[in-house]
Amino acid sequence: MSVRSHRRPALVVRAFVAAALGLSGFAATTALAPQAGAASVTDPLCLSAPLSAPVRLDEAIATGVSAALIRSINNLTLGQLDHFSEDGTTWVDRCGRLYVADEAAPASVQRDVPAQLAASQVPADVFDLSSRPQSSRTIYLDFDGATYSGTKWKNGAEIVSAPFSIDDDASTFNEEERAQIFLAWKVVSEDYAPFDVNVTTKKPDTSALTRTSTADTTYGMPIVITPTNSVGESCACGGLSYVGMFGTVNGTGYQPSWAFTYGAGTNGYNIGQVVSHEIGHSFGLSHEGTSDTNYYGGAKGWAPIMGTSYNARVSQWSLGEYSGANNTEDDLAIIAKNAPLLADDHGDDKVSATRITVGSTTSGVIGTRTDVDAFTFTASGTTTLSVSGPAGLSNTDVQVSIQNAVGLTIAAANPVGDEASDETMSATWTADLPSTPSTYTAVIDGVGYGNPQEAGRYSDYGSIGNYRVDLYAGRPTTTTETTDIPTTTTETGTSTHGGTQTSSTQSSSSQSSSSTTTAPRSTQDISFLTRALPRAKVGKKYRAEIRFDGPVTDASVDYRLPAGLRWRVLTDRIVITGKVKARATSTFNVDLDGADSSTRMKFRLVAR
In order of start, what are the domains of the chain with their CATH numbers? Predict the structure, then answer.
């Protein structure tokens, strides 16, 4: 799924003119051709003249294979076939079925160090994970090795795929490997959260993946995550998938899809991006690119799932609204043909709202760009309502609006920032409400940010997915997330109900390190202005500042920094300088004390 400049001329019109040439078989192939497509008497092309070997789609059409027949076999519109034919990663198997051989990730992505998760965050059994176990539709993430034979892959020969592994021991899964499996599952679960489909690592019965008739609503698609490409050794791929086979009746011969970690890396987050992308092809989706590349990589922490979304903080289904987009297909509508969108889980106004109480946590799903969820609650005094998606991987850019008892909007929270982060994707409202209890309604919406034609900006189309609502008395507490977080400032305003409300705004670009998300404070409190530290490079000079605000009388670092670095306190900041001597990761607290208050924040400094 790497970004590569690859533009081929549209060949569809010429192909229709050449259709009179018939279904000429040929042996054209290349060294990169993965072996797919055993002949089948059920495929129209194979009844007449099967191809000698798989070939790129544009080459097949240029050589005289009927574009009309390929359209018919693959249930494509003329526009879809045109788009696929311009994409050099699209192949035709011997019987006219399309599949995609996605490019390997850039070498820098392949070398990415797997994300670190605390053991307490990882379930004891990562092979028993299910996002929606009650669903009759399944996306099966197969990490523990698989054997297939008699499929359309590799001319029906037996394919033995090794288990996912980071170390040299493929017989067991160590703590790091289990953590990456869990993280990959979380990513895919979030991407498919709006749909009635179960993302699972638990091996399902064969019947759960097989559709026997159009009336059969129990079916799915497995995807094998394996170190090397056992399908076609000469294919330098990051993944393989047949196009549009999810939910196809009697389509198990076109299973599974594949994700190869030698081409995608072993970082669980990026594995999840590849899996969502390949399963997207199985639903019938094509690539999101531009006139210069098959894969659009996005900008400023945002990227389309069907482009290349490695390491993007926000990956979303796309309508091709970014500048220069070459594909405006409706991703959500195409997926929903075989994995319907979920029914609305919460009402959208105060009449149909879900009742919540102070001290409670409630979950929900924003399913479409028009979906809003409403929650009513009774509160008095200092109250905080926080809405956020899964840390580090949520797709929903949350906005929360607060209405009073008569339905007037009295406050709203929707943090923004130049680069996507956990803070820009969540929203927190804090207010000093009157002492007499009153009823309020919180309306949650998935919103866009800016003009999608500008780099890194997006509409509300793909701003969908899981979220949780936390309602509690008092002001926000400090929580730590291991994600890319931008610098944050706070602002305080007065709401129309007579209390004081605080909401957060964002500024600056993201920095790659661990950070602490501190909820907004009033301008009189001690607070941190710096939220994250840039990485240090071994042998290079380093300087970073931890800036703070408020009446600070003492500031200190409570743990040793990486060897070669030192810290000192200036008037409104702690300055870290020096030259790092060796690779290291240091996690430490910074304490700020004043005459009447104090605060602490945890930082993580990575030296590589």
Answer: 12-99 (no CATH), 107-284 (no CATH), 343-484+492-507 (2.60.120.380), 524-608 (2.60.40.10)
